[in-house]
Specification:
The complex is a heterodimer of chains A (about 550) and B (about 140).
Chain A: H1 3-28, E1 38-45, E2 48-55, H2 63-71, E3 76-87, H3 93-97, E4 105-111, E5 114-118, H4 120-125, E6 133-135, E7 140-142, H5 146-157, H6 161-167, E8 169-178, H7 195-211, E9 222-224, E10 229-231, H8 236-250, H9 256-272, E11 274-277, E12 280-283, E13 288-290, H10 291-306, H11 317-326, E14 337-339, E15 344-346, H12 353-368, H13 371-385, H14 402-411, H15 418-434, H16 460-479, H17 483-503, E16 531-533, H18 534-551
Antiparallel strand pairs in A: 1-2, 1-3, 3-8, 4-5, 4-8, 6-7, 9-10, 9-16, 11-12, 13-14, 14-15
Helix pairs in contact in A: 5-6, 7-8, 7-9, 7-18, 8-9, 8-10, 8-18, 9-10, 10-11, 10-12, 11-12, 12-13, 12-14, 13-14, 14-15, 14-16, 15-16, 16-17, 16-18
Chain B: H1 3-31, H2 37-59, H3 64-97, H4 101-135
Helix pairs in contact in B: 1-2, 2-3, 3-4
Classes of the chains: A alpha+beta (about 550), B mainly alpha (about 140).
Chain lengths: ~550, ~140
């Protein structure tokens, strides 16, 4: 081959690739015309679909739907109007998994002249989205659980999955959901969000957590929202964090149930989870305990004592802060574990714990004025934003710093650290670059953070980064930071808080929940992942409380 | 073509092929989190070709140009295949999901930018060079 022929071949390849890309894009994009217009109308009661009919338009009536509505008190009629459809790839399974936009797309299957619709509501009720591909290295799951979806369809056709794949035609369809018999819900945006919205959201999140505290003081740690089942697992740092937020809620609303739940959860920490770590008390139950549990317990106890819910909790704090101080190295960093059998700290570092320890020491100093706590907190913060995050490229990449920036704000009036404030402002500016704007993804994601459409935006980082962002805003205002930075950060926070309030189960898609009242106020992991862990409500709730405090003169 | 220029070019291409071999090892056998034999086998084969042709060019052995042409042709075939697959996948995702967001678009551009120079442009230049050398 001559050089000229090589150049022409490459040129031709570029052109052919471009044309092929266009053809693929057009083939798989949703098609929307008169032939795709129809409504999949369903009646749902207590999270179960009890009747379905496909209507040509909203004026059409189906006796099966009317009968189901009449025979089930509290049943909901839901229209999933088909607004477009397109082909799907069924092999390999991973292609089918990512062929549906979570929460928006369903599968239309035709076999032997009969068509069945597996709608987004069917898939949400079975929690089939974001369960398909597990990327363990990144801690992410994405895509449709195609095995579950195909099994549900095979059951409807009374055939096998392999038979379905061999003989049926599968297409995806996009829906717009509406509840024709329900009053129109108000959509909260950054522009329309009010202080009342924020207050109601915070109280609802607190009450959700409070309802889950049992007689012993344990939370319902992880709940499957559609079925209201409690799932396995427990974690002391998250228990302490949730207790902290309950105490914040108790300061927001006079609710005896919230107060009692807070004190039960706190007493479990104090009376059952407190053990000896050498000469000091600490929180944990295993041979090796972490500093995060102790740090968050201090934050919770300080909040309870400050809010006068039970000032006696201040008495427990000095021993716990002494433990944290013994875990601190001379350079300000913390050793994150303590081996109780061998009686010495273990010098390892994990995500979050150093920031939690700094905030805990700062809060303890506010409460009890022990100068050793302030000195330790200041040294810890200086390390976190200095040598602890100093490497080539550190100005272009950040970890999760939500506790660090809350500590920066907390210390500002007593030990201001301008480097820490600059660090937090840069972290938030980095976040703004990753924050979705309206219409940038197929999801309701304005205010969320993410890097592409495949992974449904997670709401917990939105909550935790909002806690930190509002704290940074508070410190920046007091520091007299440039108005442009402050204004951008405020708008960033408004977008995030509005998203959290929109996605909170308040009321949410109640028709898909077996017991909607039980999960009222909860925060899901994402728009389509409805497992409810206690820290999801905590981070969102604490962010909302911070916003309310920021509005106070 | 002057002998000095040809020798200097051979050294540049030799070092380049060794770097390409190292990048393949790093990208496939270190960075990828799981092993899958089709990818591993192709990567191992191409790594071997790039390494052998790199060493041959630096050692100025008689078959160096021919080995380089084979390695470059293999790399070009693989590179164009990978870029085509990435581009079609991106088009498919854009069709399914609609907007991919600034972050998603940036990742796609960066992946293409990382693949094109090493596995399309570089082997194409090498093929041209081996051709020009034969023509002279």
């Amino acid at each position: 081959m001559t050089v000229r022929a090589l150049a022409w071949t490459l040129f031709l390849w570029l052109g052919m690739t471009g044309l092929a890309c266009l053809a693929v894009f057009r083939s798989f994009a949703l098609r929307s015309d008169a032939s795709t217009t129809r409504i999949v109308a369903s009646v749902w009661a207590q999270g179960q679909m009890i009747a379905r009919a496909v209507l040509a338009n909203a004026a059409e009536r189906a006796p099966a739907l009317d009968s189901a509505l009449a025979s089930h008190a509290g049943a909901n009629l839901v229209y999933e109007s088909v607004v477009g459809e397109g082909p799907v790839i069924t092999r390999p399974m991973v292609a089918l998994s990512v062929s549906l936009v979570p929460g928006r797309d369903g599968l239309e299957v035709t076999l032997d002249g009969r068509t069945e619709y597996l709608t987004p509501d069917d898939l949400l009720a079975r929690q089939a989205y974001d369960r398909g591909i597990n990327i363990a290295a990144l801690g992410l799951t994405a895509g449709l659980d195609a095995d579950l979806a195909l099994a549900l369809l095979a059951e409807r056709f009374q055939t096998s999955v392999s038979g379905l794949l061999e003989r049926a035609e599968l297409r995806r369809f996009r829906v717009a959901r509406s509840l024709p018999l329900a009053p129109a819900a108000r959509t909260i945006t950054a522009e329309t969000m009010t202080e009342d919205d924020v207050r109601s959201g915070a109280i609802a999140a607190g009450r959700f957590l409070a309802r889950g505290v049992d007689g012993e003081g344990r939370f319902r740690y992880l709940v499957d929202a559609p079925t209201n089942r409690t799932l396995a697992g427990y974690d002391w740092p998250r228990h302490a964090g949730a207790t902290y937020f309950l105490a914040q809620t108790a300061g927001l609303v006079d609710d005896a149930k919230v107060n009692w739940a807070t004190l039960r959860a706190a007493s479990l920490l104090r009376d059952h989870a407190m053990v000896e770590c050498g000469n000091n008390p600490c929180i944990g139950s295993d041979r090796v305990v972490d500093v995060g549990s102790t740090a968050l317990a201090i934050i919770a106890f300080a909040e309870i004592a400050t809010s006068k819910l039970d000032p006696g909790y201040a008495l427990v704090v000095p021993g716990l802060t002494a433990f944290l101080r013994t875990q601190q190295r001379s350079d300000g960093e913390f050793m994150h574990e303590y081996d109780r059998n061998e009686g010495h700290p273990v010098d390892v570092q994990f995500l979050y714990y150093s920031g939690e320890a700094v905030l805990a020491l700062s809060r303890a100093h506010s409460l009890l004025h022990d100068p050793r706590d302030l000195e330790a907190a200041s040294r810890g913060l200086a390390h976190l934003v200095g040598p602890g995050w100093s490497f080539f490229g550190s100005r272009y990449y950040f970890g999760e710093e939500h506790w660090t920036c809350q500590a920066t704000d907390d210390l500002w009036d007593r030990a201001p650290n301008a480097q820490a404030l600059d660090f937090c402002l840069r972290w938030q500016a980095f976040g703004r670059k990753l924050q979705y704007e309206a219409g940038e993804t197929p999801f309701d994601a304005e205010g969320a953070y993410g890097l592409g459409p495949l992974v449904t935006p997670r709401l917990t980082p939105v909550g935790s980064r909002s806690e930190a962002g509002i704290a940074t805003l508070h410190a920046a205002r007091r520091a007299g930071s440039p108005g442009g930075d402050v204004s951008k950060l405020e708008q960033q926070m408004r977008r995030s808080l509005a998203l959290l309030l929109r996605r909170q189960f308040h009321p949410g898609l109640r028709h898909l929940l077996a017991e909607p009242d039980a999960v009222e106020g909860a925060m899901p992991a994402s728009e389509v992942d409805w497992q409810l862990r206690i820290d999801y409500a905590q981070h969102t709730g604490s962010a909302l409380v911070r916003w309310l405090r920021l509005q106070q003169p | 073509m002057p002998r000095m220029l040809t020798r200097a070019a051979a050294i540049v291409f030799g070092v380049g092929n060794l770097i390409a071999a190292a990048l393949l090892v790093l990208g496939v056998f270190v960075a990828l989190p799981a092993r899958w034999w089709p990818v591993d086998a192709v990567a191992a084969g191409l790594t071997g070709l790039e390494f052998i042709s790199g060493v041959a060019l630096l050692a100025d052995v008689r078959v160096a140009r021919r080995l380089t042409a084979v390695a470059a042709a293999a790399a070009l075939a693989l590179g164009t295949g990978v870029v085509t697959t990435l581009a079609l996948t991106a088009s498919w995702l854009a069709g399914v999901y609609g907007p991919v967001g600034r972050g998603g678009a940036l990742i796609l551009v960066l992946v293409s930018a990382l693949t094109l120079p090493y596995f399309v442009v570089w082997p194409a230049i090498q093929l041209a060079w081996t051709r020009l050398g034969r023509d002279s």
